[in-house]
Amino acid sequence: MERYKILEELGDGTCGSVFKAFNIETFEIVAVKKMKRKFYFWEECMNLREVKALCKLNHPNIVKLKEVVRENDELFFIFEYMEHNLYQIMKEQQRPFSEGEIRSFMSQMLQGLVHMHGNGYFHRDLKPENLLVTKDFLKIADFGLAREVLSMPPYTEYVSTRWYRAPEVLLQSSYYTTAIDMWAVGAILAELFTLSPIFPGESEIDQLYKICCVLGAPDWISFPEATNISRLINISYSDISPTNLSDIMPNASSEAVDLILQLCSWDPLRRPTAEQVDVHVPHPLLCDPLEPRLNNMGAKPNLELNLWDFGTEPDDCFLGLTLAVKPSASNLEMVHTVSQSMEEDILFCPRLNDHPEQSVRSSTHQLEFRNLLGLQSHHCSLTF
Ligand SMILES: Nc1ncnc2c1ncn2[C@@H]1O[C@H](COP(=O)(O)OP(=O)(O)OP(=O)(O)O)[C@@H](O)[C@H]1O
Questions:
Q1: Is 315 known to be catalytic?
Q2: Which CATH number fits domain 84-280: 3.30.565.10, 1.10.510.10, 3.40.50.2000, 3.40.50.720?
Q3: CATH number of the domain at 4-80, out of 3.20.20.120, 3.30.200.20, 3.90.700.10, 3.90.1580.10?
Q4: Average pLDDT, stretch 173-184?
Q5: What EC number is given for this enzyme (predicted)?
Q6: What's the complex ipTM?
Q7: I need a labelling partner for 156 at 20 to 30 A (CA). Which of 6, 197, 249, 299 fits?
Q8: Residue range 308-330: average pLDDT?
Q9: Ligand 1 mean position to 134 CA, how many Å?
Q10: Given ligand 1 and candidates 87, 125, 142, 318, which is best to mutate, with the most ligand atoms within 8 Å of its CB?
Q11: pTM across the whole model
């Protein structure tokens, strides 16, 4: 970590503290997330959900994990640096966002989600703080709670920040789907119009109550879990009528209001998928604008030698909770021992002549693992 000069603290989360830092070798500004717990073995690091998910997810709207460093039993994630998060932007916003700005944020968030859900992951903690923004470009961050869609329920541990938590999670359903992310998208979309949270519950029960106050009582027939709500909240649902969303967000078009209502459907099956939502952005981004070298490269990196399969070890314990996740075969692959220059990387990609762009891309997206304790004295590079 001596290559990094810490500049300032950016955030202090549940799992780690995040710092802005300067790489004295490459002159690059990065974000360093220092994990709070200790890591005594590399395997523990590799089993972390955040590492597993980010190794698989390579997309312009998903924050890039550049490097993982373990030093003195402490673990550091080195991410590309993003200037703001959406929470800060909304807090400082002096005027309502234009619908064009909101469409742009939404479109980018949805493209990231299409990629994530399509690759078998759901995020489970989407919220404005986890949407990082640099110059109008948005990337989804914080994969500490991400998990594989095909992992086995029941999902019992803490999931997502309360205000963005889907009703099925509040009702402690042990089975939920990517639709929980779509609920959060609906709540975030509403907040982009109002600049304040739409369901600001002060407790889990109050959260359900606040949702009822906006959406009205759930439909008992199409959302059977609604019966649990009456047990939790001592109120008569017929007394709660829905709020007219156009009254609280006069700046939203009827299409936007309609989309929020669809995304925030009580019944998860009625929520559109990320792929189904079309926010009509005139010029959607096709490549990572913050990574100029990668323009026009949409294909996945060419992967070469197999280094590591996560195998059948149990998943990482998030906040000490052991999870019954069946890890999928990882596509982490070793391309070569680390080299700093792209030219050297390319030498190790045998199919370079066939697919030059893919090889360059894989070298650029190398994930460098260093063990500074010398347990693994070599220095290897993983591409994904
Ligand atoms: N790549 C980055 N660039 C700039 N700031 C970042 C970056 N990653 C994280 N941050 C900042 O640090 C904060 C905390 O990061 P993160 O959410 O990853 O940590 P966490 O411990 O998992 O937090 P949480 O308690 O929200 O789960 C973010 O809200 C964001 O403001």
A1: no
A2: 1.10.510.10
A3: 3.30.200.20
A4: 88
A5: 2.7.11.22
A6: 0.94
A7: 197
A8: 29
A9: 14
A10: 142
A11: 0.74
